[in-house]
Amino acid sequence: MKQIVVLICLVMLSAVSLAQQVVKPIKFSVLEQRYQQANDTTYVINFWATWCGPCVKELPNFLQLQNEFKTDKLRVILVSMDFRSKLETNVEPFVKKMGGNCEVVLLDEKDQGFVIDNVSEKWSGALPGTLIINKSKGIGSFYEQEFQYDELKKTYLNTKK
Amino acid sequence: MKRTILMLMLCFATTMAFAQSGYKVGDNATDFKLKNVNGKTVSMADYESAKGFIVVFTCIHCPYAKAYESRIMQLDKQFAMKGYPVIAINSNDYPEDSFDNMKKRSTEMKYSFPYAFDESQDIAKAYGATKTPHVFVLKKAGSNLKVEYIGAIDNDTEGSDPAKIKYVENAVTALLANKTPAVTMTKAIGCGIKWKKTT
């Protein structure tokens, strides 16, 4: 009996921890450190939010990019700019429904303004926005626009040249 | 020869138009004549006694605009009497942000300021507004309207940080004291203005 209780507890715990791992809140400094690494990986960082119509529309294109080039040194990170308080109520249910194989994080910063300039001076703060960066190749461009898949793929392939 | 010059001039004019990416602090802003929710039109020229304006590009559907709505109302209460009224402008081409919905929202919330519809989107383009909310604080200087501040209302959209920096409030307070605002330019996340499809 005891064993069963322990087992149930364990199952419940892992279920809880799995549910919590869908979208991680992340500080900007941590995110920046990741994409600033000179590790020959191309980071495609898409800034989006559940409330942003054009963002939601283009998200599948980013999932597709990661999928099509999964053997490449490519890392697509989807950074939700939703409020921290909306993580459990809006962002996680949305991401679960969306599925896919991309890493999704929520930018856990009250002052999002300082983040904008640190990502790129070209960014006005409108969503969606995408940073494509490969530190070891000296590539880093910001796109304040919505991407169709063909365009996104072409932009990514250009970084491989 | 005349034709070539004309062509060149035309080329130059279009290049200028494309290079125009909105105002910087220190530029002179254009006045406008836009349809207001009260059925009339609104221009800054209507405000003879104003010292300046808090022009806010905002809309109805955007969660960031929603989050700031009460703070925009508060800015007008705080500064209209002192000579810096709020003029809210919606430039979105988006069903939820229709003129009818603007009328409804402003009545419901009892806006104390005009809510103007920039249907052609020319004013948003001239100012360089890219998202909502996007604030331009203007100061009257003779017949000119000098841009004194561009950016966010404060650095705490969610409104959960008691130590937030109130950029617009600080800028207008400085202007009222005949000082230059300490911070003249900030950036914030917002919903991109929904532009009309050009094709």
From TrEMBL, chain A:
Residues 12-161 form the Thioredoxin domain. CDD domains: TlpA_like_family. One of its GO terms (molecular function) is oxidoreductase activity. InterPro entries: AhpC/TSA (IPR000866), Thioredoxin-like_sf (IPR036249), Thioredoxin_CS (IPR017937), Thioredoxin_domain (IPR013766), Thioredoxin_ResA/DsbE_sf (IPR050553). The keyword Metal-binding does not apply. The keyword Transit peptide does not apply. This is AhpC/TSA family protein. It comes from Solitalea koreensis. The lineage of its organism: Bacteria, Pseudomonadati, Bacteroidota, Sphingobacteriia, Sphingobacteriales.
From TrEMBL, chain B:
The keyword Phosphoprotein does not apply. SUPFAM superfamilies: Thioredoxin-like. The keyword Signal applies. Residues 23-177 form the Thioredoxin domain. Residues 1-19 form the signal peptide. It holds the Pfam family AhpC-TSA. This is Peroxiredoxin. It comes from Solitalea koreensis.
